[in-house]
Amino acid sequence: MRVFNFAAGPATLPLQVLEQARDELTDWQGCGMSVMEVSHRSGTFVAAARAAESRLRELLSVPPNYKVLFLQGGATGQFAAIPLNLAGAEARADYLNTGAWSKKAIAEARRFLAHVNVAADESATNYTTVPAAASLRLDPAAAYLHYTANETIGGVEFPYVPDSGAVPLIADMSSSILSRPVPVERFGLIYGGAQKNIGPAGLVVVIVREELLGRARPGTPSVWDYHAMAAEDSMLNTPPTFALYLAGLVFKWLQEQGGLSVIAARNEAKARALYEAIDGSGFYRNPVDKGCRSWMNVPFTLADPALDALFLSTARAAGLVNLEGHRSVGGMRASLYNAMPPEGVAALVACMKEFERRHG
Amino acid sequence: MRVFNFAAGPATLPLQVLEQARDELTDWQGCGMSVMEVSHRSGTFVAAARAAESRLRELLSVPPNYKVLFLQGGATGQFAAIPLNLAGAEARADYLNTGAWSKKAIAEARRFLAHVNVAADESATNYTTVPAAASLRLDPAAAYLHYTANETIGGVEFPYVPDSGAVPLIADMSSSILSRPVPVERFGLIYGGAQKNIGPAGLVVVIVREELLGRARPGTPSVWDYHAMAAEDSMLNTPPTFALYLAGLVFKWLQEQGGLSVIAARNEAKARALYEAIDGSGFYRNPVDKGCRSWMNVPFTLADPALDALFLSTARAAGLVNLEGHRSVGGMRASLYNAMPPEGVAALVACMKEFERRHG
């Protein structure tokens, strides 16, 4: 009995993908071994890794002058790897602070950079909006501009791509990658942990413009040296093979759905249904400015927080799980990643309406 | 149809473990979700992670003043993390060079240390032996002594634990961890990539004496800061949850087998059977000194290398796969990790004898 899983990550995956992984778990492609047991240097595995990369490139229309890297250490690892690869120890970089994940990226960057310029800071709004495009206080001498395209906890998503001029633009897209088309050519680097829209935790995808390779400072760990990893097709050391295999199945599933335009339309409709239910209620509330509400992560509160526990148990009884808000903010949160079917959102909306009818 | 998989890593896993993972892949513990889809902060997953750590501690008799960390980035990541955590930038450290993996560890350490003292170097023997215990040219001012307990490519395994005096002893046990009991209390730190005796690639286990925590130099990436990771029970960021789950199943399987004394006896018998077949043949040859032959990785050559391809295809036809030697050395290699049953070794020996009878 599968449930509708609204967790923020690790998160729900397409059932079709899980069933394929299950069916071939002890015998992959008739080789008599699990994909977990196969050498990353074997022809079959290398072919699967190449296919995964090709599918991802096609889905995101990644230009040929960009490398796609499959690395370990999560987005938090990249918080360190980015300054190590793209800025000298004496360098400066711009960061936009729009919530919990921006703050973490900034804190880690401060360990590696002489100066982090917070070019916009939404802490005064309690992270309920994003800065206006014209308000960014950018440093023309910055090594790069970093921002968090979607804040998983706050549920704030940039409705625009910041204009960083000649400075390379870097986006943490952990919780929004593959949810809609993205103009990759406007970015120096895009990265995202796998455990939302890509696959199992333990894999992080980095898409980086080739001209940014080869700038790593001395003392950059080899497994995070973009140039060294690109030269070895992400196999300088053993990659997380099972996670990479599963990501390939998810990419294939996305293509079968019709690609990111179809996925984006579906995601927009899912998010609209939930936000309309919230806004139309007077019982539920989402604090985020309407212009920058996340399609992926929808936090909401009840008029009476004393009812939170009852709401969560009622939802759980209806097969709607992991709706708890992040431990740092409380309330509720529904994550609507690609693998969440519209039926899951419809069931949630129905549950919310019935709960309001009985307790509102 | 499962085969006997002699790959060096990623490597064969216990079928019982794979079957359990398969059976619960879309519905873990009746929660209606895959273990891949469950939050790492959920009660069920935290309990599974704690159980995995407890089982590992019990298997290896890890003393209470040691922390067990589950990290990302593989052993190659630890080649960087070890100097970052345990030595200042001006520090010196001792390394023993006994083969390909020692060399990689040394090359990476040189990126982070003012001086790497190669306290023993077996390159002159073509890495067919280990240094005598009394011959190590140790630096009493070294921050630590690092060695590779088992060389996966060369098939050389230390039959003794080096005496590093007051200097912390560090061992890369990627390809020998859990193959036999180990006196953990003699080590400052033991680490190992999962993809041989632990589980899927993408997980690295670090067992470190608590007094060595908190020494990380400024600029150590948070996800590799042992102190920070220990404080968060290895969940400073999202861990590779599926790999950790599967490692827990492997630890449980090891306990069900009777623990490491039973496993060690089985491994010794498996290795002895293969080495006896090689030494008794005149047709096959293993170049390693008898006193330090690996139980886990057995490289061997044929009297006539022109027969290599025929041997490999003959073995493959008998369901014995991945016997190719490492691409850097050629010949053959049979890896006999814990999950390789004695029946697999018996089948290999039988195949070798028949091949010699026909072509010797």
Q: Please identify the oligomeric state.
A: homodimer
Order of helices and strands of chain A: EHHEHEHEEEEEEEHHHEEHEEH
Report Rg of chain A: 21 Å
Head-to-tail CA distance between termini of chain A: 31 Å
Class by alpha and beta content of chain A: alpha/beta
* Helical residue percent band of chain A: 25-40%
- Tell the overall outline of chain A: globular
Query: What does the largest sheet of chain A look like?
Result: 7 strands, mixed
What is the residue-mean pLDDT of chain A, rounded to a whole number? 97
- Low-confidence segments of chain A: none
CATH architecture of the largest domain in chain A: 3-Layer(aba) Sandwich
Q: Work out the helix count of chain A.
A: 9
The CATH class designation of the largest domain in chain A is Alpha Beta
Say what the CATH topology of the largest domain in chain A is: Aspartate Aminotransferase, domain 2
**Strand composition percent of chain A:** 15-25%
Number of domains of chain A: 2
CATH superfamily of the largest domain in chain A: Type I PLP-dependent aspartate aminotransferase-like (Major domain)
Tell me which protein chains meet in the greatest interface and how many residues each side has: A-B, 69 and 69 residues
Report on this model:
Two copies of one chain form a homodimer. Chain A contains nine helices and 14 strands. The first copy, chain A, has helices at 15-23, 43-60, 74-86, 100-109, 226-231, 241-257, 260-279, 308-317, 342-359; strands spanning 4-5, 66-71, 92-97, 115-121, 145-148, 150-151, 156-157, 169-172, 189-193, 204-209, 284-285, 297-302, 320-321, 332-335. In chain A, the strands form four sheets. In chain A, strands 2-10-9-8-5-3-4 form a seven-stranded mixed sheet. In chain A, strands 11-12-14 form a three-stranded antiparallel sheet, covered by helices on one side. In chain A, strands 1-13 form a two-stranded parallel sheet. In chain A, α4 (100-109) links the parallel β3 (92-97) and β4. The longest helix of chain A is centred in the last third of the chain and has 20 residues, at 260-279. The radius of gyration of chain A is 21 Å and the shape is globular. The two termini of chain A are 31 Å apart. Chains A and B meet through α1, α3 and α6 of A and α1, α3 and α6 of B.
